[in-house]
Amino acid sequence: MNYIFLIITTTFIFICFFFGLKKEDKNLNSPLLNKSVPEINLITLKSENLNKDDFKNEILLVNFFASWCVPCIVEHDFLLKLKKQQPIKIYGINYKDDVKNLEIWLKKLGNPYSKIGIDDTGITGINWGVNGIPESFLIDKDGIIKHKINGIIDDKQIKILITKIKSLEK
After folding, report:
1. pLDDT digit string, tens, across residues 21-58
2. What's the pTM?
3. Beta bridge partners of 90
4. Where do the structural domains in the chain lie, given as residue ranges?
């Protein structure tokens, strides 16, 4: 009798766990939506400055990522695909990563980023409300955050982004 109860309980827990993992909302609200990008002052991979002034006058995507992040590797091909489908600047924020590993990673996978800010302390990620990487933010021409994606940008997210970009271009 105890074995039947154990089997039923285990099966129930497994089913709840399975459906819990399938539930995914990549478009979670952020307190930063429809607000100006937070203060930012990073050195880029090319030893330039990346600051709040870089987030104006054009629509762009900001992508928090790292070379040690497995989902970021999966997402990387989709970022390259997005860049081909929609000419948009993508700023990468390299989150708590080793620069040498980042350079190897970009050489191996390609570079979809116009600029890559180095957030070695994670403070920029905290200021932007990043919960985990990858996370991406769509910024309008006025430097206002219009959309946030938690998790991997995939084909579905590319379609959503392209629609949102076209509406911002009007």
Report:
1. 544 444 456 777 999 999 999 999 999 999 999 998 99
2. 0.82
3. 61
4. 26-169
